[in-house]
Design brief:
Blueprint: H1 3-19, H2 30-42, H3 46-59, H4 64-76, H5 80-93, H6 98-110, H7 114-126, H8 133-137, H9 141-153, H10 160-164, H11 170-173, H12 176-184, H13 190-207, H14 217-232, H15 241-259, H16 266-273, H17 294-314, E1 318-319, H18 326-337, H19 349-356, H20 364-367, E2 371-375, H21 381-389, E3 394-399, H22 402-414, E4 420-424, E5 437-443, H23 452-462, E6 463-473, H24 480-491, H25 498-510, H26 516-519, H27 527-534, H28 544-553, E7 556-561, H29 568-577, H30 586-595, E8 604-610
Helix pairs in contact: 2-3, 2-4, 3-4, 4-5, 4-6, 5-6, 6-7, 7-12, 9-13, 12-14, 13-15, 13-16, 14-16, 14-17, 15-16, 17-22
């Protein structure tokens, strides 16, 4: 920078300084000061951002956002020791702040404290960062490098030598956030899945070498994490015929060694678990009698102990109704084979912690003692969330699949919830249970019945006068791409088997430009999710006029659609109808959806109320 440029820069700093408010002034709210600090940070004007943060902390020493910003600025300067001190203070002030835990994890990793880094990364994922994990993983220069090598050949396959070269998978194995994310949640992203598929094949090659020297601890931990990811997504990754044969051979070798009480490496066990669920292997319980490092013990807990617990839970589940309808029997078979969804993270962890500390207060409705029916609870995520929000409510959660209910019971027990009763039942038969409810929720279920409206009528008959009902139904307009994909699947004779679902998904990946909507759907990235999305044995789609007609016929008043993830939806709706816009007018919503058919891509989710008479 020459003298003229330095002088100009100085003038700009002076001008900026004149515009800085008097931060010490008590007349400026802390919220406004925090917004200003964030703005300076975003502009990388760290000196000003630090000054604002110091003024905030002088007034509120435990202001988590300011402490987090100071940590980030220390991190950017390479001062990770100062950074972890700032993050520690931020977490002490707000220990359910996912961002603070993630940032602390990065600095601990930079300092070489891998145990603390992993603990903070896992906490961040448990507090909600699981939904953003793929985006953060793809920011890693190491991951980006591997992804770029695959993209350079796509759609042609990349060889192991071209992808991993002389460095192998060691660089990936040292990425702690990637490892923690693989253990925690389904990683829904095409680029990452393709990369991890190649990594799994490379680990299979390494395990097959039967090397005598011990494997690196990071490599074993990484292989265990990948095996847990494969278990979570139900082994949805594609594999070549030769790869499948090598995996089967490694499994058979493991079984032989297990039967003969011979030694085998943790890597061998982890790689087999990345292709086959351990609880399905003969004599797998023998694995529990051996000593293992913690990462392998964690893998055995997920793939062996928890499935055994679910088998025990099945014995405690009562059957409320018979399951006689032919379509209901087929749907039950689907969800017995692939319980959906295989969720892992409780999305209300932070909410529950905040409520326990008194940071948030329950509404009168949330505190009320009510009878709630969850009709079609699947693996329990929905019921468990309601049970946490409404701790005094009495919940009956029913589903057609015993396997799903067993999963739900295990997760409910782990969370210590005691206000949920699970039972097997067919919605079409629920009229025989002689019970009524203040609230009924059935989201993503009725459209899989032989006759959705018949099932809905049964639920209406169980709802008390004045009660509310939350319903989720597929949209005919929004799911055109699903209809197109299902037609293509039928034309190519793909069946709802694991092998065919894998092959179908790989074909869709190769034609990614045509199927961007599918590839962007989280359900696409697990076996049960993909089967539910594209291979469901029964799917009905409805329109808003059909829904409106049902509501009118049964004296149900429409209370509104659930808030949209994209705020632009309501903005467009209000703009289209201007002063006449009415968010509970279904005729307006139908006209809006015709113009914007992607609006209800997931489904229509809405509340209705039964007339109080």
């Amino acid at each position: 920078m020459n003298r003229k440029e330095r002088r100009a820069a100085g003038k700009r700093r002076d001008a900026a300084g004149k515009n800085v408010p008097a931060f010490g002034s008590a007349g400026i709210s802390i919220a406004d000061l925090a917004a200003e600090a964030s703005r300076f940070y975003g502009m990388r004007r760290f000196n000003e951002a630090q000054e604002v943060c110091r003024h905030i902390l002088a007034r509120e020493p435990s202001h988590a956002q300011s402490l987090n910003l100071l940590g980030l600025m220390a991190q950017a300067a390479g001062d990770h020791r100062s950074a972890v001190k700032a993050f520690a203070k931020a977490i002490a002030a707000d220990d359910v702040n996912a961002a603070c835990h993630y940032n602390a994890g990065n600095s601990y990793q930079a300092l070489g404290n891998r145990a603390k880094a992993a603990a903070h990364f896992s906490k961040a994922l448990a507090l909600g960062m699981d939904a953003k994990a793929v985006g953060f993983i793809l920011q890693s220069p190491t991951v980006t490098r591997y992804v770029g090598r695959i993209a350079g050949k796509w759609p042609l396959p990349v060889t192991s030598a071209d992808l991993f070269g002389g460095e192998g998978v060691a660089a990936l194995a040292s990425d702690l956030f990637l490892r923690c994310a693989m253990e925690a949640t389904t990683l829904a992203g095409m680029q990452l899945e393709v990369l991890l598929g190649h990594v799994r094949a490379e680990l299979l090659r390494l395990a097959g070498e039967q090397r005598r020297d011990g494997d690196d601890d990071d490599l074993i931990a990484f292989a265990c994490a990948l095996a847990r990811q494969c278990f979570i997504n139900e082994y949805v990754y594609g594999q070549t015929e030769a790869e499948a044969e090598r995996a089967a051979a490694l499994r058979d070798r493991l079984l032989h060694d297990l039967a003969s009480n011979a030694a085998f490496t943790p890597l061998t066990l982890a790689v087999v678990a990345a292709y086959f669920p351990l609880h399905t292997l003969p004599a797998a319980d023998a694995l529990l009698r051996r000593e293992w490092p913690p990462t392998v013990a964690g893998l055995l807990r997920v793939q062996l102990r928890e499935p055994r617990e679910e088998m025990e839970e099945r014995r405690a589940i009562v059957t409320l109704t018979p399951i006689r309808n032919d379509v209901s029997v087929e749907v039950m078979r689907q969800y017995e084979e692939n319980p959906y969804p295989r969720w892992t993270v409780n999305p209300l962890t932070a909410f529950v912690a905040d409520r326990a500390r008194g940071k948030t207060a329950a509404t009168a409705e949330q505190q009320a003692e009510r009878d709630i029916l969850i009709a079609g609870c699947g693996t329990g995520s929905h019921a468990i969330q309601i049970a946490q929000v409404c701790p005094n409510a009495r919940l009956l959660a029913v589903d057609i699949s015993m396997t799903s209910l067993a999963y739900a019971r295990r997760k409910t027990r782990e969370l210590g919830l005691r206000n949920v009763e699970y039972a097997q039942a067919d919605i079409l038969e629920l009229g025989s249970i002689d019970r009524s409810f203040d609230s009924i929720e059935s989201v993503g279920v009725l459209h899989h019945l032989a006759e959705p409206m018949t099932g809905w009528r049964v639920l209406v008959s169980l709802l008390r006068p004045g009660g509310t009902m939350r319903i989720g139904l597929y949209s005919e307009l929004a799911r055109r791409v699903i209809v197109e994909a299902r037609d293509r699947i039928a034309a190519r004779n793909y069946r709802a088997t694991a092998d065919d679902i894998r092959r179908c998904r790989q074909e869709i990946f190769r034609e990614a430009d045509q199927w961007r909507t599918l590839i962007g759907a989280k359900d696409f990235y697990s076996m049960s999710g993909c089967r539910d999305l594209l291979f469901n044995v029964m799917e009905h789609r409805l329109t808003i006029p059909e829904i409106a007609a049902f509501l009118n016929e049964h004296d149900l008043s429409f209370q509104g659609f659930e808030p949209f993830d994209d705020p632009a939806v309501l903005e467009k709706f209000r703009k289209q109808f201007a002063a006449a816009a009415d968010e509970i007018n279904l005729d307006q919503w139908h006209r809006f959806e015709v113009d914007h058919p992607e609006t209800f891509w997931d489904m229509y989710v809405f509340m209705v109320r039964k007339d109080a008479r």
